[in-house]
Design brief:
The protein has 412 residues and is of the alpha+beta class. The chain has two domains: 243 residues, 2-Layer Sandwich (BirA Bifunctional Protein, domain 2); 86 residues, Anticodon-binding domain (Rossmann fold). Helices cover 37% and strands 21% of the residues. It has 15 helices and 16 strands. A hairpin with a 5-residue loop joins strand 15 and strand 16. The longest helix has 20 residues. It binds one RNA strand of 75 nucleotides through helix 3, strand 6, strand 10, strand 11 and helix 11.
RNA sequence: GUGGUCGUAGUUCAAUGGUAGAGCCCCGGCUUGUGAUGCCGGUUGUUGGGGGUUCGAAUCCCCUCGACCACCCCA
């Protein structure tokens, strides 16, 4: 056969039953915890107009400038596979006319697409669970949102993580801080690495979280945003910290948390694990008060976060995919219809049943064994004529004959 | 996008220029109404793909695809 090997495209992986079992566990925890905070699920498009991401994420960002799957469709429309969820959520919020409908609390789950070089925990198609809250401005809500993220991780049993928070300021205080930082950096430009020199032009705050040790030692007394917040931002940050303390949420202040996406302001946070190498950020988010307006709506405060489903799943122990409750072994052509009917009846009573398909007893028992069932229902001509079935316990090897209507009771 | 490690049977791995192998899995038999355990027998590969060097390549070289690692960036 000259068939060329077909495989999924780079960085786009299959979710097989073992993976999906974990994903469902994560999604169930999200639903449980987010519902307690009165968040509702929304389902948003995977495909959006390119314009949406250019205007929200920012044309200069890596995501927009080189990582989007972008194409023109047959009608000539410029479209993108969404690289993240917030922009689409804001678009939906505006499109539905909800700006006067009070606070909106949404969550969603689904694939995002970024054409990056893949690694473990970093895929070209990956899943995020995202949370967005529109129409609330205060630090109280920020603290509650962070507590919700914490509660979610605890629901999953993940406590080997740390939460780091920062404030990114706002259009009032950030420009002045930015200038101060840039002049600080320029004085030391020749001692900073090449990428930091590029970052100085493009996104100076990025220099602060450079991984190069020599840069970090050069930056020990670099000005920090939280020391230069305007009065309103300072009150907000103080309120956030007080709220987290009231809710017993463990956190560390990390003045070097930065955001690549243009729309963030004030509260920024990350939840990080040390167990996933360089891809340790498992949840990240923050406030984006300017985005709704930037996309054409009325000024509307908003905050949200996103988590990487695959990354979370990697932190979870293997989930064993549950096998069927029972297998049916039908012996002889004469019992074919009778065995099918029994299988159907047992399914309608809530048992999960596999039918071993007839043929030799050996083949069918082998199949039943492989399915990992605890019980096999043997249906032969003898049993059928007597109005009974044989139930075999696959662990003990014991068999007993009984009436069909007591099977369910016998296996529980 | 840059740099690096790796890729051999379904799977886990051997074979360092000289006939591609083992364990597990799988299939058949011992047992045509009984699996898992035991015994006997059997199949399994364009060595990721393509090209080159060589009498001869899994092994050396080049290209390419993929996984992984670091950077960039980010969930």
């Amino acid at each position: 056969m000259g068939i060329k090997k077909l495989q999924s495209i780079r960085g786009i992986h299959d979710g097989l039953p073992g993976d999906v079992a974990k994903w469902q566990k994560v999604e169930a925890a999200a639903k449980t915890v987010f519902s307690r905070y009165a968040f509702s699920e929304v389902r948003l498009p995977l495909l959006e107009p390119t314009e949406l991401f250019v205007r929200s994420i920012g044309e200069e960002t890596d995501i927009v400038s080189k990582e989007m799957y972008r194409f023109e469709d047959q009608g000539g429309d410029d479209l993108c596979l969404r690289p993240e969820g917030t922009a689409g959520a804001v678009r939906a919020y505006l499109q539905a006319g909800l700006t006067r409908a009070g606070a909106q609390r949404w969550y969603y789950t689904g694939p995002m697409f970024r054409r990056e070089r893949p690694q473990k925990g970093r895929l070209r198609q990956f899943q995020q669970i995202g949370v967005e809250m529109f129409g609330v401005a205060g630090p109280i809500e920020d603290a509650e949102l962070l507590a919700m993220a914490r509660d979610f991780l605890l629901e999953l049993g993940l406590d080997q993580v740390r939460m780091e928070i920062n404030s990114l300021g706002c259009p009032t205080c950030r420009p002045a801080y930015r200038d101060r930082l840039v002049s600080y950096l320029k004085e030391r430009a020749n001692k900073l690495c090449e990428t930091c020199n590029e970052r100085m032009e493009k996104n100076p705050m990025r220099v602060l979280d450079c991984k190069v040790a020599s840069c970090q030692s050069e930056l020990t007394d670099a000005p920090e945003m939280i020391a230069h917040l305007c009065a309103d931002c300072d009150v907000h940050f103080t309120g956030l910290k007080a709220g987290l303390e009231a809710l017993s949420v463990d956190y560390q202040i990390n003045p070097r948390i930065v955001r690549g996406l243009d729309y963030y302001n004030r509260t920024a946070f990350e939840i990080i694990t040390d167990q996933l190498g360089a891809q340790g950020t498992v949840i990240a988010g923050g406030r984006y008060d300017a985005l709704v307006e930037a996309l054409g709506g009325p000024a509307t405060p908003a905050i949200g976060f996103a988590m990487g489903l695959e990354r979370l799943a990697m932190l979870l122990p293997e989930v064993n995919v549950s096998g069927p409750d029972m297998a049916i072994v039908a012996l002889g052509d004469a019992v074919e219809g009778h065995a099918l009917m029994l299988a159907s009846q047992l399914r309608s009573k809530g048992l999960s049943i596999v039918h071993c398909g007839g043929g030799s007893a050996k083949r069918q028992f082998k199949m039943a064994d492989r399915e990992g069932v605890r019980f096999v229902l043997v249906v032969g001509e003898d049993e059928m004529n007597a109005g009974l079935v044989t139930l075999k316990n696959m662990q003990t090897g014991e068999q007993q004959q009984l009436a069909p209507d007591v099977i369910v009771a016998a296996v529980l």
